[in-house]
Design goal:
Length: about 120
């Protein structure tokens, strides 16, 4: 299920799907200076990460991902934020990402489904 709300001051899209028996809801918001993505299977925000492209002179882009709140010992969550910021920055290089992952299932399959669904429904 998908909905796009143009009345709210911030462009956003809501998507939900079933992943391994867990209802997964995603909200994607495009603010002027950030992208906010909330993915939840628990009905609340979870671990919150911040990801951005580092500005520099190198040919290869560098990305910074940090955990703001929540589980710091989950490398798959950090990898998910990195995959998303790599995609976002290839289109809008100056917009950082704030990502909230409130998941029951932290498997790589679920996280890949979330990344694919976000990219498919992107607002950037």
């Amino acid at each position: 299920m998908e909905s796009l709300d143009t009345n709210f001051p911030v462009r956003h899209r809501k998507v939900s799907f079933e992943s391994k028996g867990n209802k997964t809801e995603i909200v994607i918001c495009s603010y002027e200076d950030h992208i906010l993505i909330i993915a939840t299977q628990i009905g609340a925000m979870g671990t919150i990460l911040h990801a951005r492209k580092e500005e520099g002179m190198s040919v290869e882009p560098t990305f910074s991902v940090s955990v703001i709140f929540g589980k710091r010992d989950e490398p798959m969550l950090t990898a998910t934020a990195r995959r998303l910021i790599e995609h976002i920055s290839s289109i809008v290089p100056s917009k950082p990402l704030v990502l909230s992952l409130g998941l029951k299932d932290h498997s790589s399959e679920t996280l890949k489904e979330i990344v694919a669904t976000v990219i498919e429904n992107r607002l950037w």
